[in-house]
Amino acid sequence: MAESVAMPDTAAPALKNIFDPARYRHIAAETAAVYPRFDSKQFLALALPGLDALSLMQRLRRTSECLHATLPADYRKSIAILRKLAPRINSGFVTLVLPDYVGLYGREDFDTSMEALKFFTTFGSSEFAIREFIRQDPGRTLAVMKTWAKDKSEHVRRLASEGSRPRLPWSFRLDALMADPELAAPILEALKADGSLYVRKSVANHLNDITKLHPAWVLGRLKGWPLENPHTAWIARHALRTLIKQGDKQALGVIGAGKKAAVSISGFSVSPKKLSLGERLELSFTLQSTSRRSQRLVVDYAIHYVKKAGSSSAKVFKLKELDLAPGQSLQLSRSQVVRDFTTRVHHAGRHEVDIMVNGERLASGFFELLKP
């Protein structure tokens, strides 16, 4: 087997059943349809044993490995078969097997692999597999991806941005791009006003990744972009979301909310004051303008979650971004269930809650989370 690639094993258990015995029989039948010499029995004999113990991404990886064991040893011949197989697979997620195969076995045939990843991404996504090539040869791979950023297909354009994200979830980090965001800058420049929301979301996420390491670089880049263009403005707002939640004045300034808010908050209610895990928390308050001018406002709230040791850590949530007219009064509310996630486990104790406007805390309250 080829060297293992870092892949996620944290998906919800039910999702792993995307790769169930019926799916493997489907893959075997469709592969045999395009390659009659395919040994379906051998493929299934390799794929099915011990399936229940495997996570979603382990099953995906096993599928790639089993295809490699039963397709021609010649890489280009196997890719030609997989290209015919791609439109016959009955699940977009399952098509991730195809670029995964490229990432595992195609690193010594760069040109064939680049064409294959460009083709396969239109069926699912090649965002994980392309990173193997960036890690191996960033200059050569990014040069190809720069041409993808100008492709007519939104799927290929998105791959240029998503695949080169420094901190793509469910994948390993790209050290070269984390150290120097300029390496992928031509890709971002080409996509800064893209007409596809699918692509714009990726560009915004790429930039948001960079803000965690090089915030000044992102702010400088965005200041030079045509923010009067609605597509570019959308990217900027979403790219700066982490900095905005942190109350960064420069980031708030980019979206027009950098000035101190001339407002008052009254009637801030946090209810119930005591609740158990799984119950709903309700926040409400009145926001009143004290200005004679219209104001661009970013309203967030922060919950200071109690840690196991007794200290607390704040998590900021978006509430509303709005233009408040002179003297205008607005009632705002938010409701959320307090429940555990894989990324956050709750602990009993007093949880402070803050309301922030343009990065400044203007009201505070609390609730008590009871012990189970």
What does this structure look like?
- By secondary structure, the protein is of the alpha+beta class.
- It folds into 2 domains: 178 residues, no CATH class; 107 residues, Immunoglobulins (Immunoglobulin-like, Sandwich).
- It is 41% helix and 20% strand.
- It has a 5-stranded mixed sheet with strand order 2-8-7-4-5, with no helix packed on it.
- Helix 7 packs across helix 8.
- The longest helix is centred in the N-terminal third of the chain and has 15 residues.
- The protein starts with 20 loop residues before the first helix and ends with a strand.
- The relative contact order is 0.07.
- The N terminus is likely disordered.
